[in-house]
Structure prediction request, 309 residues.
Amino acid sequence: MKFLWLVIGSYLWAGFFYRSYTAAALKNFVQTLVNIVPVLIFVFTFIFLINIFVQPAAIKKHLGSDSGLKGWLYAILASILIAGPPYVLMPFFGQLQKQGMKNSLIVLFFSNRNVQPPFIPVMIYYFGTPFTVVVSVYILIFAVINGLVLGKILDKH
Amino acid sequence: MPDVCQEETPRKIKNIMKEAANKTLQMIKTAFPVIIGVLLVISLLNPLLEQFYPQIFTGNYVIDPLFGAIAGSISFGIPVASYILGGELLKKGVSLLAVAAFLLSWSTVSIAMLPIEIASLGKKFALLRNCWCFFTSIIIAILTIVTLKVIQ
Prediction:
């Protein structure tokens, strides 16, 4: 909210000195907002559905220290299905880390925040299907690479 | 089925849905001000900055994603906000290479969230992960654009 208040303050200042420029900017903002409202409705509806079907207890059960290869698959799945702000997810995974979740799986999870069902259609809308498919594949590949590399470094020490 | 089980299942479902709704509402409450703020900033600054985009974003395979990744690292919010912002920047002439690095670093690197990440997961984890993901954002952006050029 602080950020938004700062921006509103900037608009008030700009409006005082550059009235017509600010008016044009506001008009542009409203047009862009109207265009993205259907996109936002879709995204948050999808997130609501995922929150119904993906429960924290299940994550805890399948991503623990003894999870093996299955743990990697579940971590990839979790990274795809779980959408949430970092300030909620980080403390949650901090708890899991203390309970024995491997650092490699946590790194994998946080390396993929884009390849998620609510966001893919939006990416396609703005950047096209070829870009979305290609970048998604690379994101998932590098999520595993990141987990392997950083997991080795972090778990070694 | 015992009466207790028959009563509990709908109640359980109701509780799950209530919790899901609360979580989603919390996310909307947090994300919406950021999205509005970002759109307002673009609308205000873009007319001033867009004349410089062709000079800054020349399609260079190192400079463009580097600037994109830096911009993404200092931003934060739900990934959708980055797609909206990235889409608008793309329309204004910023290269897809820079925008790709921007999207990737927006969601995997966060200077703003560093204190929370350090407190939750440890200093070494947080610093190593953010630095590593900054560079992989650039690499993934380059690989994506090169692959698109090959297949299209």
In short: Residues 145 and 151 of chain B are 10 Å apart (CA to CA).
